[in-house]
Amino acid sequence: MDVIAGLLEEYLTEARVLQLVRITILLILGLSVLLFIRRAIIRYVSKNYAPHYGMLTGKLVVYVGITLLLVMVLHDLGFGLTPLLGAAGVIGIALGFASQTSISNVISGFFLMAEQSFKVGDVMNVNGNVGIVLSIDTLSVKLRMFDNRFLRVPNESMIKSEFINITKFPIRRVDCHISVAYKEDLNRVSEILFDVAEKIPYSLQEPPPLLIFDKFGSSSIDLLFVAWATKEDFLKLRNGLNMGIKERFDKEGIEIPFPHVSVYAGSASKPLPVDLLKSEQKSIRT
Amino acid sequence: MCNSVWETVRLTDEGIVNHRVGPLSIYLKKILNEVWVAASRDDRIEGESQALPPDAEWTRTALPAPYEKFVITPVFPDRSVVVDTDYFYRIYPGSNVRVYCRVPVFVRITPEAKPDLVITELPTVILSGTWFGIFTEGELSYALTSTVRRILEKKHFEPHLIVCPLEIHNTSNVDLKFEKICLRTERLSIYKKEGVLWSDETKITYHSKEEDSIIEAKAAVPAEAKGGKLITSPRTPVRKSFAVRTFKVLRDFNISGF
């Protein structure tokens, strides 16, 4: 104990205590001012531009501010800037080799931000995972998936892989794949489809809905009906259209067929006769 | 023409007040400092209000004080209105036309003592949404089909329709062909004369296909409604003129949108 007390007494001179107090005050004041400036800048930029830019500017302010504070503290401790930069260079090379992936992520992050393919709040599909972008950070992009799971995608992966920004553009197309029986009048089907779309308030008049004859299917005539909605109303229109079409088809007696097979003995002969037997009748196996 | 459509209604804590504006029937009731509003629509444009539907959806608003008098005023729709002109319209270079189109109003309800406190705005006619622009940018607007008329007759005046006079000048050296006009209604005022609602006169100058049309809202009562009284100011402040895309040919959205 005496040895420790002696060492402390020897180390904690009046000048050193003053220096520590000065550094503590510098750190407390510096960090408080930095956080205040960061908050103010985020608020201003988010309000006047976009939350995405607010977040980026906030991060930039924090990184620059902390670097400055660190340099000031080290300077106060008696470290010169030139040897510090030299040491930083050496450490940088060593760290660079040791953390190639992280540095790749950092650089990819800058490219992602510069490219502006997406921003905070956009809905993205990344390798089949759909979610809302929460943040674009130094190392990764973070998403909240719609089932409330958290997805972290390294920036390097984002740069290398394909992703879909679902909400980049203001309007979206709803596709309804519809099958109707061969017996149905397609003009009547077309009228009903357009009428259903017109009655849904989320369906935009322009771009206009469109009916496309897809193909002669094995059991049905396959159609594609498309309508447009604003990106906010996309799901409402999709539900409204599908439910509306089913309801109207049921009401109008239009058959939505299930897969079935008709067996014919050939074009020159009549179809094979098939009789339904009552339960009390015995079927004959030959 | 009914002059009592745009009036002040008095609410008490007992009973429901009905009010008709064109096809819209409004139901208002008051409980202390709370106002309840419901609405329904039918095919008539005048007469008694429709009976309160049993499944009426009420909206409740608590106000700073228990106001008793409420003003019902007409306002333009809260988005631009894209008018489908029924027929393809063509204006030769150097020609100009003056046409009229009629836009269904929204009804704004405010306490008489506090006109800046908007309780609700109800459309007299539910208009479909439409997109005015291209696939990557544009604006959500209301769609309206209207015979843009050259001559107005008395039968065309309806209590819930605002008559918008438009002067279209084609100063370009090419034909101006369009099927739709986008009316920037947020910059227009509403005037009333003898029960008829009029908007400012809008002058649209078409220079070329590459350039946006120059729109001038004259911010004055049109000649047809001289002596009319200003009853609603524009939603956004009026600038003397501004350049925006105004005309649209249906072919703008072709198969490229598929």
Structure, explained:
The complex is a heterodimer of chains A (286) and B (258). With 286 residues, chain A is α+β, with helices and mostly antiparallel strands. Chain A has eight helices and eight strands; from the N terminus they run αααααββββαββαββα. Chain A has helices at 2-11, 14-48, 51-76, 81-98, 100-115, 155-160, 186-199, 234-252, and strands spanning 123-126, 129-136, 140-145, 150-154, 163-165, 171-180, 210-216, 221-230. In chain A, the strands form two sheets. Chain A has a five-stranded antiparallel β-sheet. In chain A, helix 2 (14-48) runs antiparallel to helix 3 (51-76) and helix 7 packs across helix 8. The longest helix of chain A is centred in the N-terminal third of the chain and has 35 residues, at 14-48. In chain B, 0% of the residues lie in helices and 48% in strands. The termini of chain B are far apart. Chain B has two domains: 8-73; 74-104 and 125-249, no CATH class. In chain B, strand 2 (17-21) and strand 3 form a beta hairpin. Chain A binds chain B through residues 169-171, 173, 198, 201-208, 210, 212, 226, 228, 230, and chain B through 82, 126, 128-132, 135-138, 140, 143, 253, 257-258.
Structural features:
heterodimer; A: 286 residues; alpha+beta; Helix Hairpins; SH3 type barrels; Alpha-Beta Plaits; five-stranded antiparallel β-sheet; three-stranded antiparallel β-sheet; 50% helix; B: 258 residues; mainly beta; 2 domains; eight-stranded mixed β-sheet; 21 strands; 0% helix
Judged by helices, strands and strand pairing, the structural class of chain A is alpha+beta
Q: Sheet bearing the most strands of chain B, described? A: 8 strands, mixed
Spatial order of the strands in the main sheet of chain A?
4-3-2-1-5
The chain-level mean pLDDT of chain A equals 85
Our estimate of the beta-strand percent of chain A is 15-25%
Number of H- or I-type helical stretches of chain B:
0
Beta-strand segment tally of chain B = 21
So what's the overall shape of chain B? elongated
Structural class of chain B: mainly beta
Give the largest chain-chain interface (CB within 8 Å): A-B, 18 and 16 residues
Task: Count the DSSP helices of chain A.
Answer: 8
CATH topology of the largest domain in chain A: Helix Hairpins
Termini separation of chain B: 47 Å
Q: Low-confidence runs of chain B (pLDDT<50, min 5 residues)?
A: none
- Estimate the helix proportion of chain B, in percent: under 10%
Q: Tell me, briefly, the overall form of chain A.
A: elongated
CATH architecture of the largest domain in chain A: Orthogonal Bundle
- Mean pLDDT level of chain B: 84
